[in-house]
Amino acid sequence: MDPQPTAIPDDDAHSILVTHSGKSHTFTLPTTSTLSDLRLRIQSTFSISPEYQKLTAPKLGLLKDDDLPITALPSPPKKILLIGSSNAAIQDIQLANSPAAAGLRKFGGTGPIKPAKPVRRVDFTKASNEAKYTFGPIRVLTHLPNPQRSETYLRKLASDPGIKSVMIKHKFSVGMLSEMDPAEHTTHESRTLGLNKNGGEEILLRLRTDAYDGYRDYKTVRKTLCHELAHNVYQEHDRDFWELYRVILKGVEEADWRHGGRTVEGGGDGGRVLWEGEERERMLVEEADGGGWTGGSWVLGGGSGGSGGSAEDRRRVAARAAEERAKKMRDSSGTA
């Protein structure tokens, strides 16, 4: 520690104002002093060794000559800027970078310097596609009970990993995803589960049970959404439509990591994938366009419920449902 300065007569003294990190201090030294003497005084006040001091003076710039007379430096209110790290801070840095500290970190210990966390890489292409190939606003029926639950249901569908995957793959965009009012799309012979207006302008889904006292099975409604997405490309239920629908459905189920994407009939190794075969295709027609799902049982057409009915009965129900849809299509711009 340098000795404290003694009193200096005013006519034999020179004052210098030094600022560092927002703090200022005025040093008074004999006129015979040099820059080297000022550095020692700075060390006593700011705890910064001379070799780590950078001093900048107005009009003189960076001060490098330690033999520079102190009288050559400006007096207050002009300031000299001090840049430098304190001895304590430098010691911490040296300790953190010492071989001992490096060895401690190598074997799992903690040190003053922690390893940087890896930066999460952003896939801008994926983010752009997700923003482009998606659904627009969500609309629910506010006059029915629990509209918040309906909104949550639709948002879950819109963010479903399988749905998002196929929308990006097929470049589907839907203007609005809405809750269908069962009262407006239920007849004695059929219950419309989904509606696609103008090739993707709006998709409506029947979320509620017929009595409005509950909500339909999520996977069933999701399959209906797959059906309506296929109507973005094909209006008629022709071979091209069903081929696209099966591709969409398969893509959704395979991309759904939570369920593995494969639902089979029966148990054991003898089960088969449900999206395969003519029987499955016929059931899909009834499911998406002529039937409903209540309490875990198939309700075909306007019947009283149950899971049965012969294949011929189911075909007749599907035919009546198709006739009903054709009639509705003539009265509106939508495609069921």
Automatic annotation (TrEMBL):
Pfam families documented for this protein: WLM (PF08325)
Residue spans of biased composition, Basic and acidic residues class: 311-336
Gly residues composition-biased segments: 294-309
GO molecular function terms noted in the UniProt entry: proteasome binding
Source superkingdom: Eukaryota
Domain WLM: 126-327
Ranges where the record places region Disordered: 294-336
Protein name per UniProt: WLM domain-containing protein
